[in-house]
Amino acid sequence: MMGQFNTIPSSPRVMFDEEGDNGLVLCDKYLPVEILIEIFCYVDCKTLMNCQLVCKRWKMLMNYVWHKKTEQTLAKPFPWNDKIPWSVFYFACTKKPYERNLLRNHSGTEGMHHWDLGSNGGDQWRIEEPPVGVPKLPQTEPMFKDRQICFTTSYQRCSKMQDIYLTDEGIHPYILDTYQPPIVVSEWYSCRWDCPAKYQLEVKLIGVDEEQMDKFKFEDILEGEKQNRWLQVSHVFENYGTGLRVISFEHSGRDRLYWAGHYGSKMAGACVSVKIPENICTCTCKKT
C-alpha cells in the first residue's frame, strides 16, 4: 500500500564493556588494540576526526593515536598526558607550528609584505639584493643559500613590526599555558664598511588580556670592528607564565652620519620559533 514501508529492526544497543571486544572486531576479525592504533596512524587527519565518532572504544583510543601520529609527523618526541585535548595533536600534525620560523618574509623576498611600517624616515626602507657594502650573508644558514637579500635603513629611523598570533599558527593554548615551551628569537644584522649605524630589536610577549607579559630589548652601535660583518642577536623566552597568545617583533635602524641614501643598518633572517616542549612548567603566574 502507498505510504507504507518495511524496516529491518536494528540490533539492540549493547552497553560498552571496557574489558570486551567492542570496537575491536572488524569484518568478523579481532584486531588487538596495538594493531588498530598502528592502522589509525596511516589515516589522514580529517578521517581521524570522523573515526572519533564511530564508537566509545575508538574515541578512547584516539588520543593515543593522535599522539603517536604527531611524533611521526614531527619526527621528535612530543609531550603526553591524558588531559591533553586531541586538538593539540591535530594542529601539530596539520600546521606543524613547532621549530619553524613563524615570521613571514624574514629578509625581504616579498618586499614589505607582512610587515607593518612604523617609522620610515630618511630615504625610507629599501631591499637590497645582494646586500651592498657588506660581506655575503652567512652560508651556514639554510635561509640564505638560495638568495642574498636584506632590509636596509636610511639616515633617519626606519622601523617595522610583525605580530604572530600563536593559536592561528597552530600552537594550542593548552600547550602554551601548561608547558610554556621555549620561544627563540633571532636576527642577523650588519652595516656598511664606510658608515657606522645603529640597530635595535624589541620583542614582546602579549597575553590573552593584551597586556605585556615579557620583553626582550636589544641595541647595538655598529662602529669600528663591528662594521662590515654580519652579527646575530638571539634570545630565549622561558617560564613566561600562562595566557601568552601573541608575539610582537619590531626591529629598527639608521646610519650614524646622516648620509643621504641607504647607509643605515641592514637586517635579514628575522626568526621566531617555538620549541617542542619537554617538561611541564611549574610556573603558573604571569610576570609583572
TrEMBL record:
GO biological process terms on file: ERAD pathway; glycoprotein catabolic process; SCF-dependent proteasomal ubiquitin-dependent protein catabolic process
Cross-referenced SUPFAM superfamilies: F-box domain (SSF81383), Galactose-binding domain-like (SSF49785)
GO molecular function (one): ubiquitin protein ligase activity
SMART domains named in the record: FBA, FBOX
F-box domain span: 31-69
One of the Pfam families matching this protein, by short name: F-box-like
Domain of life per record: Eukaryota
FBA domain span: 89-276
GO-annotated cellular components: cytoplasm; SCF ubiquitin ligase complex
Protein name as it appears in the record: FBX6 protein
Gene name as annotated: Fbxo6_1
